[in-house]
Design goal:
about 290 residues; mainly alpha; Rhomboid-like fold; two-stranded antiparallel sheet; about 60% helix
Length: about 290
């Protein structure tokens, strides 16, 4: 549950709808705004008052050009576009891997194996992320994308697009890093680590917001049991690595909600990424 201090802090709630909690700030006035109050701009989102001020300023200086520009902006655009984009791109790559002749080549070019992180002629660090684009079967990709779609539609409007994208990327890297540490040389495919990161973040953020997270806890527990079933052929390292990093990122988001904490939030996220990459020195030294 949330603390009295958290509930009393207006920075944690939309300034126009005090009963709605949000992590998104207006890029101009830095006040907290819920999805209904967000207007998507090229560099972020702004609140209705800042939008009105901008419209008036544009109308006073360059009415014809300003009218065209404002018509191109969709007000209150809180659609989870990052989520939809990730689903589309992942499904596209899965279909490409089914093409005879080139599918296998693409699969092996994107799948993760810690051996490609060792400096040398085959040094390919991008596999930390591209592993999320290839899957072992139609059921594998379908279940992962269904989970991404369901979780992303809730998390992305709450966090904002860049925070959600950061969460997904860091969770994917976290899954790959734990595979490199505990199962070196193992081939791994799928977006499961990133999806587990979304689950971990949703659990931590939900607890901080005072939401009943029993369903999320049960879902995590069931997935954990399935992961360790004999013959499941599931990389538990990727799942747990992604989930732990996602929980950490969710904790950072929850504890750096203040307007004056935004720089701290970005520094902590950057430090998380650097720390994950630094851990890759361990398998590079031990297993060469």
């Amino acid at each position: 549950m949330t603390t009295p201090g958290y509930r009393a802090n207006p920075d944690n709630f939309c300034y126009r709808h005090p009963d709605r909690q949000s992590f998104v700030l207006c890029q101009r006035c830095t006040r907290t705004i819920c999805p209904e109050c967000q207007t998507q701009m090229p560099v972020g989102v702004i609140c209705p008052e800042c939008l009105r001020d901008q419209q008036q300023a544009v109308k006073a200086t360059r009415p014809s050009r300003g009218t065209r520009m404002l018509r191109s902006v969709r007000a209150s655009d809180s659609r989870p576009l990052v989520t939809y984009g990730l689903v589309v791109v992942t499904l596209f790559f899965y279909l490409v891997t089914l093409i005879p002749g080139i599918g296998d080549q693409i699969w092996f070019a994107l799948a993760f194996n810690s051996g490609f992180l060792i400096p040398g002629p085959f040094f390919q660090p991008w596999r930390l992320l591209t592993v999320t684009l290839v899957h072992a079967s139609i059921w594998h990709v379908a279940l992962n994308m269904l989970a991404l779609w369901a979780l992303g539609r809730s998390l992305e409007p709450l966090l904002g697009r860049w925070r959600f994208a950061t969460l997904y990327v860091l969770s994917a890297i976290g899954g790959s890093v734990l595979v490199a540490l505990l199962a070196p040389g193992t081939w791994v495919v799928g977006a499961s680590g990133a999806v587990w990161g979304l689950l971990g973040a949703m659990f931590v953020i939900g607890r901080n917001l005072g939401v009943n997270v029993t369903a999320i806890a049960v879902l995590l527990g069931l997935n954990l049991v399935i992961t360790f079933l004999p013959g499941s052929n599931i990389s538990w390292q990727a799942h747990i690595g992604g989930g732990l990093v996602g929980a950490l990122v969710g904790f950072i988001f929850a504890r750096t909600r203040g307007i004056r904490q935004q720089r701290t939030q970005k520094l902590l996220l950057a430090a998380t990424g650097v720390g994950l990459l630094a851990l890759l020195v361990i398998p590079a030294v031990l297993y060469t």
